[in-house]
Amino acid sequence: MVEEALVRYVCEAPTKAPPKACAGKRRPPPRGLRIKKAEDQAEASLEQEVIRLRGLVASLRERSEPETRPKLDAEVQADVDSQGHQNDSDAQEQLDSLHQEVGDKSRELRRSQETVRLLRSELKQQQEVSEQFRLQAEMLEEQLLLTRQRFKAEARACEERWASRSTSLSRSRPSSAQISRKEFPQAGRSECSDEEEPCGRPPRRRAFCGE
């Protein structure tokens, strides 16, 4: 930028123009030679000035490059480092979030496994209890069946006993009635025998019965 400004300044610098000749008059030759010589000197001085300015620009560039390049390199490196650090921090955050998510999933898996284990143990206990209830129900059904059979047998036996007893009673009633009718008129005239003692009569009444 400095070099461009100096070149622009040199190019825009006004140069001394030769005096114009008056119309109708001739310029003397010695004066023309002096003007040409002055122009040559001006061009030579201009070239020297340009060379000097170019050297100055080159020296300034040489002095500014060692200072600006490390700064630029440092700035670029800082940008790269900051960008890399930002990328590293983002990657670390993503890694931490992944680790946390994996830890949460593993804890949920352990809780689910524990729940499944408890449910299996409860199911096993319920199966054992239901099996015990089933066996008890079968035993009670067998006992109920045996009890019903025993009650039926006892009821049948009772019915048979009552039937046989009623039959025997119906058969024995007419003979006992006839015997009582035949013996009832002779009870006052007959003597009491020893078989009548079980009736509760005292032995002293035997003489009375003999009269």
Automatic annotation (TrEMBL):
<feature type="compositionally biased region" description="Low complexity">
    <location>
        <begin position="164"/>
        <end position="179"/>
    </location>
</feature>
<feature type="compositionally biased region" description="Basic and acidic residues">
    <location>
        <begin position="60"/>
        <end position="74"/>
    </location>
</feature>
<feature type="compositionally biased region" description="Basic and acidic residues">
    <location>
        <begin position="96"/>
        <end position="113"/>
    </location>
</feature>
<feature type="region of interest" description="Disordered">
    <location>
        <begin position="59"/>
        <end position="113"/>
    </location>
</feature>
<feature type="compositionally biased region" description="Basic residues">
    <location>
        <begin position="202"/>
        <end position="211"/>
    </location>
</feature>
<protein>
    <submittedName>
        <fullName>Uncharacterized protein</fullName>
    </submittedName>
</protein>
<feature type="compositionally biased region" description="Basic residues">
    <location>
        <begin position="23"/>
        <end position="35"/>
    </location>
</feature>
<feature type="region of interest" description="Disordered">
    <location>
        <begin position="14"/>
        <end position="42"/>
    </location>
</feature>
<feature type="region of interest" description="Disordered">
    <location>
        <begin position="160"/>
        <end position="211"/>
    </location>
</feature>
